[in-house]
Every structure is written in structure tokens, then in C-alpha cells.
Amino acid sequence: MTARQYKKSIESGQVQLSKAQQFCYYGAVIFFISMPITVIIYHLILFINHDEQNYHIQELLIVIIPIILALVLYNIQKSRLKFLILNPGLGHEEIWLVIHKIREDFKWTTVEESDNIFIAKTFPSFLANTWGSQMTILLNDNEMYINSISDPNNRPNIFAGPENKRKVQAVLDYLQEVKKDSKTSH
Fold this sequence. Notes:
This protein is an alpha+beta fold.
């Protein structure tokens, strides 16, 4: 994650993807929008060539239905990029201990780790019932930004919402456990 992507992620509250990742992540949207574009281009060519045009209700449906599906999928995918923003009430070192413990327990592969950025991935596995995901944790002042999405470098699974929510919930559970342990030790 570049410094610009980090800054924009913090400002917008959403994971920032590269252009290539956006293309993969929104692949289903692109697929559904391609059919109406093809029909529209076809009719534009007929119009330019002064050919007789016969519009059929089926062609209108081929344009409208995929556009509606594309808009729905776009909104679903875009909403999944939002960070859960919280103030964990822990020190920087305690937060990193939690992150490293979760990484070990869930067997995440670290992609990027710096003072304020942690990005890890899981890879597709039939036995683990996963298509692969990317976990992003950003630290900014006293706030922690958490997000889990389908791996944007692979074909994203539009049905992976529960799996990604489970991973975010695991981070929250670990944070609660550490907070409880630190209170009882004082």
C-alpha cells in the first residue's frame, strides 16, 4: 500500500485498490455491463448506417436487467470496502501482539507490514471453504481500521460476505480478550 493509498484509505474509510485490483474486484460488474453496451453499440451502428431498426422488448430487457444487476453488485462490492473503525483502547505494542497472534492462529500470509499497515492474505482452499481473502488493518493515532474482502488479485467471490465478517469478528474478539486480560492484570 502506497503512502497515498494509506492516506486516502484513512480519509475515505475505505480500502483503496490499485487499478488492476479494481478490475478484478469489480469483474462481475464489468461482466453484467458488457451485454447492454454491446446491444447499444449494435443499435448505434445500425443508426449510423441508416439501417432500418426494429426494437424489441427483449432487447430492452437485455439492456435494463443487466444494468440493474451491475448496479446492485457494484453497491455490494463497494460497501465491502468500508473499514470498521474503532478505538481499541490498547497501546501500539499490544495491538501488534494481537495482530501477530491472529496471523498465526488463522495462518494468514503477510503481504505487507509496516508501523501502521498490516495486510495479510489467505489463499483459495477447497478444504478450508475459502476463495482467498485479504485482511487489511491500518493504525492511525488511536484508531484501528479493519477490513476483510475477497482477494482483489484473484477472482472475487461475491458471496464471501459471511467469511469476511467472521475474520473481522475474530480480530474484535481477540482485542476484547487482550483488553480483559490487561484489566485483570492491573
